[in-house]
Amino acid sequence: MKSKSSDRHAESIEDVSGNLTSRKKAEQALIESEERYRTLVEASSDAILMIDGNRNIISCNPAFLNMFGYASGELEGKSIKSIHLSDEKYQAFGRLVYPVIAKKGKARLEWDYQQKNKKVISCEIVISPILTPDQKVKAYVCIIRDITERKQAEAMVLQEREQLAAILDGNPIPTFVIDENHQVILWNRACENLTHVPREKVMGRPVDSRIFYPGQDRPLLTDLVLKMDKKSIEKFYGDKGVRPNPTMPEAYEGSDQLIVGGESRHLYFLAARLRNAEGKIIGAIETLQDISERERLEKQFIQAQKMEAVGTLAGGIAHDFNNILMGIQGYSSLILYNLPPENPNYEKLINIQAMVRSGADLTKQLLGFARGGKYQAKPMDINELIQKTSTMFGRANKEIRIHKKFQKNLYAAEVDQGQIEQVLLNLYVNAWQAMPSGGDLYLETKNVVLDETLVKPYSFQPGNYIKISISDTGIGMDSRTKERLFEPFFTTKEMGRGTGLGLASVYGIIKNHQGIIDVSSEKGQGATFSIYLPATEEKINKEISPASEIMTGTETILLVDDEETIINVCRDLFESLGYRVLSAGSGKEALEIYTQNQSDISLILLDMIMPGMGGGETFNALKEIDPQVKVILSSGYSLDGLAREIMDRGCKAFIQKPFSLQELSEIVRKILDGVL
Ligand SMILES: Nc1ncnc2c1ncn2[C@@H]1O[C@H](COP(=O)(O)OP(=O)(O)OP(=O)(O)O)[C@@H](O)[C@H]1O
Ligand SMILES: [Mg+2]
Predict the structure, then answer these.
(1) How far lies 629's CA from each of 341, 567, 570, 602, in Å?
(2) Is 616 domain-assigned?
(3) Is 360 close to ligand 1, i.e. is its CB under 6 Å away?
(4) Are 230 and 174 members of one domain?
(5) How many A from CA of 427 to the centre of ligand 2?
């Protein structure tokens, strides 16, 4: 066995024998090794530093001096504290690092230091102890690498990533992104709001198609676009009109009515494949836009335009038609006026007049739809109007039970009585026709407040409204009928039963009263029409019912109309009432005649629409000659914007063609006697 003492002995032998040469060799080797290490340390681009147990600097390499901005020799013997940002940092470093070294033999961490000029640098530092043979710490070696640039780059990347995430998350268009394994990596806030599915439920897994197609397990467009599986795209989305996006490669778009988040919405969706900078496919993105509101507005706009165009047409027809009816009405009432009832033609003439009246009713419907203004708006009690019209209607239609529920102290509404009666009767008649074997008709009134959100789509003022509901228990209607029922000439009734003008005129009238009309109905479930009319603060004036006798006179009347038939029939009407008549075929002629006969002429019946100088212009010129001139405006159109303007300028009255002898006699007498 080789003892320790024999080892020592061997050593000493060698020591003795090779004394000089071996020591020299050893010294030489040491010098060489020390030089190698020094070169290594001095050439290192990492800062290398040795500190003692009290954390004073023993030595450091040029990289360290360079990194921290000190001159050689400047730091030796000084505390390492001077490169820390503060005393607190220095203490904290100590508390953090030395226990780790004691436990693990070394520590590695990132730490901020300061250069001599106080500039902060971020460093990565590895610190390990140099131990004495008895394991005591003699010193520490620190290797420090300046990572400021890397840190800044990392911070920038992080910031960019956060910014991007914020943009995607805050983007108001519902968006989700899947990775190449079909797993969700983005489900933005708008997507959460749309689907009512929180991101925690979907992140990191494939999208559940039932979120968009309740009860259906089917591939989503994003999944198919990711694989660019054109066959499946066609198979699953062909019927939804999905097509390649015309501007973006590898993107498909389409729209569909879906039930999402419990609500039926019309969604426009766009799915695109995502590639990274190298062109590698990294996933797919899908955006979903709710276009229901836009579609509704577009439809409303087109509908409004259509209604306006048809309205103009209808107004024109009504005007010409009324002139014709005026002739028939006038002549037949003239014949009747002079005919004893026992005459065999008397009955026939009464029939002619009845037919003229139904013709006039038709044009009234047309005008109700077409006109742009109200005729004679007065504050009215709507309960009373409903009471009156429904009693009349009920008397004629006994198979219908009428139930009324009227609001007490119902607000007044400023309405044209005749028009609103027309509206109510149209709705009653429709309800009656929808209940061929009888049924119930519910009439209800209510004071309501419509707020901003309710009136916004109609661009009306929020405030107090009167709500009239008219419900029946009839056949109801499908959604196609509901969509079109306010269109003029839309009818589901057999030929000869309906003209399809009832609701068109209801719509026109309510609109001109700044009101809203709405319908709710299902097939076989009856129908409810709701009308909202703006309330007025004005007091209700009780209406005075007109007298029904024919009133005569002897004054001179000037007739102004461009249509000869009208001049002729009116002349005959006036003359049969005892008046003297002058006539003019144009505004210009009227002015000449009036200038010459001003003192004789007591009243002018002025047509509103004439070629050249129209009724309005003629009225102004007449007024200039005599500010007190008495004029009745007459037209085949009803009192719309233009006529209203003339009335506002001081015209006494308006009479709509066709008018009867009695109507004419009454209005003329009232004006001549100064009642109007
Ligand atoms: N209360 C109702 N119940 C069921 N369907 C209705 C009701 N009211 C209207 N409709 C439907 O709307 C259509 C249009 O109604 P509108 O009053 O405009 O015309 P009409 O009644 O057919 O003809 P007109 O009123 O000109 O005689 C009707 O043909 C019918 O299909
Ligand atoms: Mg009708």
Answers:
(1) 39, 20, 20, 8
(2) yes
(3) no
(4) yes
(5) 7
pLDDT in tens, 119-141: 999 999 999 999 999 988 899 99
Q: Phi/psi class of residue 101: alpha, beta or left (left: φ > 0; alpha: ψ in -120 to 50)?
A: alpha
Residue 313 has pLDDT above 60, yes or no: yes
In a domain, 391, yes or no: yes
Q: Give distance in angstroms: CA of 74 to centre of ligand 2.
A: 105
* Cβ pair 462, 452 in contact under 8 A: yes
Do 50 and 187 share a domain, yes or no?
no
Q: Which atom of ligand 1 is nearest to the CA of 492?
A: 29
Give the separation between CA 202 and CA 200, rounded to whole angstroms: 6
Rounded to the nearest 10 degrees, the angle between the axes of helix 4-17 and helix 19-43 is 100
Q: What is the distance of C-alpha 465 from the center of its chain? A: 24
The answer on 312 and 286 residing in a single domain is no
Contact 326, 658 (CB under 8 A): yes
**Whether 260 and 165 share a structural domain:** yes
Question: How far is the C-alpha of 601 from the C-alpha of 635, rounded, in Å?
Answer: 21
Whole-angstrom Cα distance, residue 386 to residue 401?
A: 15
If asked whether residues 577 and 651 sit together in one domain, one would say yes
Residue 520 maps to a domain = yes
Ligand 2 centroid – CA 501 distance (Å): 7
**For residue 658, cis peptide bond before it (omega within 30 degrees of 0):** yes
Same domain? For 407 and 502 the reply is yes
Residues 162 and 83 grouped into a single domain: no
Count structural domains, the chain. Answer: 4
Query: How many residues are recorded in the chain?
Result: 676
Does 481 lie in the same domain as 438? yes
Q: pLDDT tens-digit profile of 464-521?
A: 999 999 999 999 999 899 988 988 888 998 876 778 889 988 998 898 888 999 999 9
Residue 196 to residues 186, 220, 260, 311: CA-CA distances in angstroms? 15, 18, 8, 45
Give the residue whose CA is nearest to atom 31 of ligand 1: 492
Instruction: Indicate if the pLDDT at residue 8 is higher than 60.
Output: no
Amino acid symbol at 150: R
Q: Is 477 in the pocket of ligand 1 (CB under 6 A)?
A: yes
Residue 109's domain comprises 20-146
